[in-house]
Amino acid sequence: MKAIILAAGKGERLFPLTATRPKPLMPVAGRPVISYVVEALKSVGISEVVVVVNYMKDMVKSYFSAERGLKVHFVEQSQTLGTANAILCAREHIDGDVLVIYGDLYVEASAVENLVKEYESKKPDLLVASCYMEKPQQFGLLKVSDNGSVVDVVEKPEEPVPGYINAGIYIFNEEMLKYLEKTPLNPERSQYEFTDTMKLVINDGRSILHYPLSHDEWLDIGRPWDILEANKRALSKMQSSEIKGTVEKGATILGPVHIGEETVVRSGSYIVGPVYIGKNCDIGPNCFIRPYTSIGDHVRIGNAVEIKASIVMSGAHIAHLSYVGDSIIGENCNLGAGTITANLRFDDKTVKVKIKGEVVDSGRRKLGVIMGDNCKTGINVSIMPGVKVGPNSWIGPGLVVYEDVAPNTFILVRHLEFRKLGK
Is 93 a catalytic site residue? Predict the structure, then answer.
C-alpha cells in the first residue's frame, strides 16, 4: 500500500502563522505536524509516499529531505482546485491500494492502523475515516446507514445537525481513478471536491464504508487554537524527562520535561511538565514555565517571565517581566519587558477570533495572542485575548492592543504634554 499526503493548501484560516510557513509544518511539541502523519504511515508498513505540494513547496520538500525510511515522490498541484484534483495529480503513482491523508492532521498511529485493518478485512470500494461532531458545519457530513455504509455526503451543512464528518483519510484502489476523473467542478467553491467524487461512487452502487475515529486520536488543524490543542495532546504522551542540556543548581524540574542539547536552565527557574524545550535555549533565571508549553530552538526566556500552555517558536526572545498564556509566538519575535498576553475575558465568556474576516467563537475560555514571525513589542505592551498579529509587525511601548494587527505594520502612539513648573 502506498500513501498520498495532501500538502498543497495555503491554510488561510491559520493566518498569520501560514504567512511564512505551510500548514503541515506547524510546530507541535517540537515537531512539524506532518511528522505525526508520517509516523502513523510508517506504523502500518507504508514505505512509499506521494506528497502533493503547491504553497511554499520548497519548505515541504526540505522537510522530507531529512526523512529516513521513506521513498518520496513529489507532484505539484499547479492550482489548488480541491481534494479530488489534488489526488488526480498523483494518478501515475496509483497502481493498487492507496491511503490518502491530509498533511495537516494530528492523528494517532493507532487510528491509521485500525483503518488499514478495517479496509483489508472488508475491502470496500472506498473506506472513509469519520469522527462524530455535535456541530459539523466546517466539514463534510456523512449520512450513514445502520450497517456503516455511506449513503450521501453534505459539504459544510448549514443546519447544525450532529453526525459523522469526513475526517480526511481515505483508502481505495486504482478503480477510484475513473470517478476522480468524472468529478465535476463544484460551482459554489470552484473546486473539484472529493465529496462530489463520493457521490458518484454512491450513485454507481459501489460500496463506501466509514470508520469512526475518536476525538482523542484525530484532530483537524484548521484554525490557530487547534495547534494549541494538538500541542497539548502530544505533550500529554510524555512519560519521563529527557535532559540533554544543563540544569543549574537551584532550578526545579517537575514532571516530564524535554530539554534539548546545549540548552541552559538557570538557577531559580521553575518548570512543570509536560514541557518541551529545544536546543541552544537560554532559560531563566527565575522564570516559570507551566505545563503544555513547547519552546523551539535558540529561544531566550528570561527573568520573571511566565509561560503557560503556549508555543514559542525558534529564535524568539522573551527576556524579562512578561507573561505569555495560551498563545502562539512566531519565530524570531522579541517581546519587550512587561509584555502581557491576556488570555481571559472580563466576562469569562469564550474567546472570539476573526478568521478570514468573520468573527468565530474559538470555544476556548482561555486564548491569548496568535503572533506571526519577526514581530516586536515595546515595553509594557498588553495584547487582549484572541488578537492576531501579522508577521514583521512592531507594537510600540505602552499600548493596549484590542484588534488584529496587519502584517508589516508599525503601531506607535505618542502624546507629549509640557507644563511649566511653579505658579
Answer: no
